[in-house]
Amino acid sequence: MAVAIQFTDFTWTYAHTSRAALRAINLTVHQGECIGVIGPNGSGKTTLAYSIDGLIPGQYHGIKHGQVDINGREVEDYAKGTLQREVGLVFSDPEAQFTAMTVEDELVFGLENLGLQIPEIRERLEWVTELTGLAPLLEKPPYEISGGQKQRVALAAVLAMRPKVLVLDEPTSMLDPVSRKRVFQVLDELRKQENTTLVLIEHGLEHVVPLADRMVLLSGGSIVLDAPTPTFFEHLDLLGQHGIASPGAVEVVSRLKADGRYDGELPRDVDGAEAIVRELLAATGSKEAR
Ligand SMILES: Nc1ncnc2c1ncn2[C@@H]1O[C@H](COP(=O)(O)OP(=O)(O)OP(=O)(O)O)[C@@H](O)[C@H]1O
Ligand SMILES: [Mg+2]
């Protein structure tokens, strides 16, 4: 499988700070893989996102060691504006992203910049409007819509570009539960349809866990745990030390596993946990009956 994102001994220290925001990061993400990145506030998650998208070192001052490669080429070797064709970044603060007078123009703007023909732009506009449910908002100025709606527009604008690598930095922080669920469904569909590589930075673990193949825990700028999602949550003590609470359904089964009462894979969601617990209860029941 081709490597989409490769961090090699990457260390970044913002100008005028004494402590590295990311230190000695080694991370490989394959094409089509989805990784969830979690960590306490200030652990370097956003800095990691910026380093994939080239904002670091392009837009920020600081000291860099090591390198980041996207699709086999170092971030700094991409000609101006070309990395953005490979990598889409959705920020948590959508305001910073808007430049156009209407939502529709906002969606079309990036596509025009890609040099696409009008029929292709129309097709993508329709696709993304449908996918994100933005039809009623197309004529509105971006500054007149709600925070949650802005987040959906920001996501749609990036999705429309169909980047091979999509980095989402808390993309649903302002959304209501229904819209949030929908966004994660959209990401799942996109992954299946387009084999998009996803880096998902998100506090809402219950949404990330079902989607992520792997989870990465950042703390103090370092990767302290990088494991396939089913084994990641077996590290209860390490996660606890870094203030990470597992999703309830996962934790219940992880505790059963730590107690030696279960030895299979951890579930991804409540349904999975329920099936495991039912099976354990059934087995206990048949023992008691004997
Ligand atoms: N522009 C900047 N200049 C100087 N230091 C910065 C800058 N941006 C972030 N930092 C510092 O770098 C470290 C990592 O910050 P970063 O924003 O990447 O963390 P985060 O994990 O995204 O946090 P949060 O959960 O709050 O979003 C922090 O110590 C932060 O203070
Ligand atoms: Mg952040």
List the helices and strands and how they pair.
Blueprint: E1 3-14, E2 22-30, E3 34-38, H1 45-53, H2 55-58, E4 62-70, E5 73-74, H3 83-86, E6 87-90, H4 103-113, H5 118-132, H6 147-160, E7 165-169, H7 177-194, E8 197-201, H8 205-211, E9 214-219, E10 222-228, H9 229-232, H10 236-241, H11 248-258, H12 270-289
Parallel strand pairs: 3-8, 3-9, 6-7, 7-8
Antiparallel strand pairs: 1-2, 1-4, 4-5, 9-10
Bound molecules: adenosine-5'-triphosphate (ATP) and magnesium ion.
Characterise the protein shown here:
The protein is an alpha/beta fold and 290 residues long. The protein folds into two domains: 3-246, Rossmann fold; 247-290, no CATH class. The chain has twelve helices and ten strands. It has helices spanning 45-53, 55-58, 83-86, 103-113, 118-132, 147-160, 177-194, 205-211, 229-232, 236-241, 248-258, 270-289; strands spanning 3-14, 22-30, 34-38, 62-70, 73-74, 87-90, 165-169, 197-201, 214-219, 222-228. The strands form two sheets. Strands 6-7-8-3-9-10 form a six-stranded mixed β-sheet, sandwiched between helices. Strand 7 (165-169), helix 7 and strand 8 (197-201) form a beta-alpha-beta unit. Helix 5 crosses helix 6. The mean pLDDT is 90. Magnesium ion (MG) is lined by residues 45-46, 169.
What value does the average pLDDT take?
Answer: 90
Fourth CATH level, the homologous superfamily of the largest domain: P-loop containing nucleotide triphosphate hydrolases
| Strand ordering within the main sheet | 6-7-8-3-9-10
Task: Give the number of domains.
Answer: 2
> Unreliable segments (pLDDT under 50, ≥5 consecutive)?
none
CATH architecture tag of the largest domain: 3-Layer(aba) Sandwich
Small-molecule binders: adenosine-5'-triphosphate, magnesium ion
Topology order in helix (H) and strand (E) letters = EEEHHEEHEHHHEHEHEEHHHH
Net shape: globular
N-to-C span: 51 Å
Strand content: 15-25%
Beta strands, count: 10
